[in-house]
Amino acid sequence: MNSNPILPRESEIEQVLRHRVNEIPVVSPAMAKLLHICGDEDVSIADLSRLVETDPGVSTQVLKIANAAFYGIRHGITSIPEAIIHLGLDEVKKIALGVTVFEKMIKTGKIQHFDRIFFWRHCLCVAVLSRAIARECLYPNPEQAYVCGLLHDLGKIVFDLYGRVDYDDFIANVARHTGTLIAEEKQIMGMGHDDIGAYCCHLWQLPRSLALAVKYHHQQYEHLGVSSEEACLIAIISLANFLAWTQGMGSIDIIRPPVLQPEVEQKIDLDNINFTAVITGMDREMENISQFYNFVFPSPSQFRENMFRANLKLGSINTMYYFMNQQHLPAVDITRLRHSLTTPHRSLDPNIIITSTLEAVYKDLKCDRLYIMKVVKKLRRLKMHTFLDAADSGMDLGSIEIPINRAAGGFITCMRNKKPVLITGKTSGEKQTLEKFDITQMVIVPFCSQNKVIGILGMDNVVSKKPIVQNILSAIAIVANELGIAMENAGIYKEAKAASLKDGLTGLLNRVAVDELLAKAFRKAVDGKHDLSLVMIDIDYFKRFNDTFGHQAGDNILKLIATTLKKLSRPFDHVGRYGGEEFIVVLNDTDMPKALVYAQRIQKEIAQLGRLLASRFPGTLLTISAGVSEYKKNIKNRDELISRADKALYRAKENGRNRVEAG
Questions:
Q1: 143-166: string of b/e by CB count within 10 Å (b at 16+)?
Q2: Which positions ≥6 away from 275 have C-beta within 8 Å?
Q3: Which of 26, 69, 155, 425 has the fewest CB atoms lying closer than 10 Å?
Q4: Domain boundaries defined on the chain
């Protein structure tokens, strides 16, 4: 399979940039050559000297840095070959590349919301971390990792220079919201910095390794067929970027949770990375670098606060949802699926499936205790989910957790090899687990979903003390396999059912789902259990967006409105796309005055986004109109409630659009 990055089309690029593609200035030949050389371990002193000497400004800066006190060189260095001999090829390559990129792309930037000096500190930080992590995980070319880390966010500079939407204004807008920076870029700028950066790498004929790292440092890539070495390189850059953000060294002066792809843990053994050494090395090298770029680092108290705020946000957002939302589930025949579940699992409730499995195993094998432990990936632990204590041992098994680390022994073997294991206390971790269960041996069997271990089925004889014979393992393995199939089918059914209630484009509830939820809310309002209001929203001049800028622009506007509605709505409200460019929001426990305030807030937010997008969609300003209705005792049914909101929306349109009317 071709492992070149999947690039956006030229027409898509020109929709988000002010210039045509052929008008974007290319990098200088010296810089392009330097990028190739910096990833080449076989470059000679003569080749590197000739290249650096072609740019007097760069060679002067290299000599200035080479003579710095922290290198400990007692006599003055006056030539590039001499600098290479004293400092080494890798160090001079690193210095030359850093100075070149800084002088050509960073130095001229403005210092506003998108501060290029702040951004450059992040790039250097990721480069230093990438090289350190590469060495830790024995990646064959750490200097290549350094280059990719330095330029992984290249697309942000391109946006700042040429974006139709002013990147400085974009950053100011982002500061008011939560969520990932890359997701906000795709909606507001029209594309992520990863895609625009990778396109420029291709345009400027830069190394493929760099293009891959730029393109996929926020995206999943396992399905693309990249080589093992390329996959490891992308994982290194992603991890370094993630680590930099958690250390308060992001590319913008706003705390934002980065996205860490599942592939990172698959390609890098995080348990074997000495993060203390990696971060200490970063601090030391960044301190030296700061002398030349005049970086100002936060004080210890500020740094601790940055750490706290970064990790607080990281803890509040499960980034797996980011990737789940990118995947499009295939259509599933739910009726057929119901009957395809493996016998005896006829229920689609995972808890019932697990309970029935334990009861079936006990009936056949008559062991004292059976338990299901689920994998908690983030905590790297097995956590008790359900247990059947047939012998009435009196122990509280519910709170037991098993760390998955090097000492875990058979538990690691079980999950890696996906085979049953008899735990007898061969390692310290095994002994500690057996002590928790008050036993001397246990059988554990993995069960999988989509070929990934999601938990283990365990059993022991805590009271009878009967030994567990080896030939029982294959029988339990069959049961565990059946359990995994049933759990996988139940998960698919659950996802399919949820998908059937969502709008495919925006991810909001569809009309069927909204009508069902509104019916329930209406009954509660009739019973006097809560207030109920409804907001109908329509995009002004939506047809103009489609006709002038194409259906892709129209789809982007719909997604942008959907995201804004989700951000500004409460968890117990129901937000849906009601058809075309029309949206509906069911506001539970909300009277008319509060509903009007909500609608006006949405309108104000969209108007501000419209001003931000004005340069991207010239001549068509994004605004919305809204109609609001409230349940009253004289309203007979939900259709009348919808009708009143719809009529209010129609009046808002007639009265000049970009208005809110009450019905």
A1: bbbbbbbbbbbbbbbbbbbbbbbb
A2: 243
A3: 69
A4: 113-323, 337-498, 511-662
